[in-house]
Amino acid sequence: METLFWLLVLLPWIFAFLVAIIRDKNFSILISTINFLLMAPIAFWFFFKAPLPTFIETPHWLDGLMLLYDFLLLFYFVHQGIKYKHKLIYLLAFAQIFLLLWNVWIMPHSQTPNIYIDKLSAFMFLIVSFIGSLIVIFANQYMADEDEKKVAPFVALLLWFLGVMNYAVAVNNLEWFFALFETTTLASYLLIRFRKDAMSIRNALLALWMNQIGGVAILISLLFFIHYYGVYHFTDILNIGATVLSIIPLAFLVISALVKGAQIPFHKWLLGAMVAPTPVSAILHSATMVKIAPYLILRLSPAITGTLLSKLLIITTGFVFVVAALFALKEVYFKKILAYSTISLLALMMLAGAIGTPIAVAAAAILMLFHAISKALLFLEAGVIEKLYHAKTIYDIKCLINKAPITVLFILFGLLSMTMVPFAMFIAKWFTLSEVAGLLNRAAHVITIVMLAIGGVSLTSLYLKVLGVIVTHNEEDVKVKFEKIPAAYFIPNFLYVLAAFFGTLFIAPLIQKVFNPIVIHVLGVSLPVKMGTLDLVVGNLVIPFWVIALALAFVTIVPLIAYRIRLKADRVPEYLCGETIPVRVGTYSLECLDKVTPYVEYIALALIILTLIFGGGMI
Q: Rounded to whole angstroms, how far apart are CA atoms 93 and 215?
């Protein structure tokens, strides 16, 4: 088992090195494919076959190496801040160096192993190794369509990142977690600035300093844990007990999750990341890296559930869930719409994790998996329409169905899977709503119900708005001509569609075999789930299998039939001598939201400060 874990970490790094050295497009595609074929089975073995939870011992020299790496990374941040004359970056880096030195000075020796793998860690292995590796395959073709010379360095960075993510979700040592948390910040910085134009560099610097705030928060939390409890491993922290454990360091860890999860007002770094090549948006800022945020909340869930910190976190993330969905409605750029909806759904994942009941934790995990699948599909399709059809706004893709039906059907499926019955993400939202509804005796949960309702409606309106534009076709009855799509574009997206389809169809056994074990490892209790049946039975929530199958067939088949329907209307009113009047159809304009954006950011910042101060028990 130990060997297989290190393969998940080291294989992508070795492959990244080979791709960067050899710099051949065909070799890069071959290595990316091999990486997927090796990583995905290992990740599946860890989740379904490995005896978990387990600790893995690490050699003492690795402690020193990780610490050395910590300081080298922070001095690199200092260098970048000085190079670009960005005071905030090098000041935050110096603050991290000071806090890290202080932590190392007082850090006691611990016998607790630095690697801990449970079902939650193995679940993240699945997301990174299956979904992330497919994005790397796609990236080869995407960069080749842009500049073949950039294929090797770009793919090498993505492969390196996969190893970093697998490492990050398995570390038990909080100081190591800080190092890898900031390594994902480094990955964002390098990939956002990859094109090296002025805007890319400016947005990369924004991502760097904003994510450094999360790193500072982790180091402050680490300092508290070491000074007051003499521990710095997640398992030791959770073993202290909720009645004894101070909420203050937990509050700082929650803040780091809010930063990495791009919650308002820290959302600008993720929006700025949209200038990077589209695979960056897919692998870092939607499918994998930002999942560290809900992962961390789920890891801390047993310690924060029921506390004031949890209640304030629920209100804060509920607010972001609503506002980000509304902001998405006013956007026309496809990638920016996807970015805002990612921010909104990350808030929902963290909200469910903060509720901390078995069903809510399962809902958070379901959202993490199927959001990663659907958003990877949608971002990659955004890359396809950008490269093959030069379309970036939703209005650029109007009538695209006439010449690219496969591409449009993939986008259609991705949008439907994000919001419609009976897809897994809808079921996860239903779970979350049902859990909050069971707690309506408290005012905070009444507010949460309202926010969940408004946010859910807003997201549904958003996806239907995009659907309404993308399925528009020319009036003339044209014969469908399937476009030719490069294999590296088609295969990953086709596999995502299959994963979302069959994952929804067999959601009941998936909950039994995948999500229930995660709940058991996180909370120590089982879901109230009926085992060995295709019917979805979780507590009082029941959906027969035939209903799921019928609804899924209806949702996927009806759009195909609707494409062939032609409705004619007379648009030549009398008394105009046959002159036609163009028909224009629009939606309500939400540009007025731009005027309230600063106020929304102030409110969100105030909620985060309240979560830290009052939720952290500092007053």
A: 9
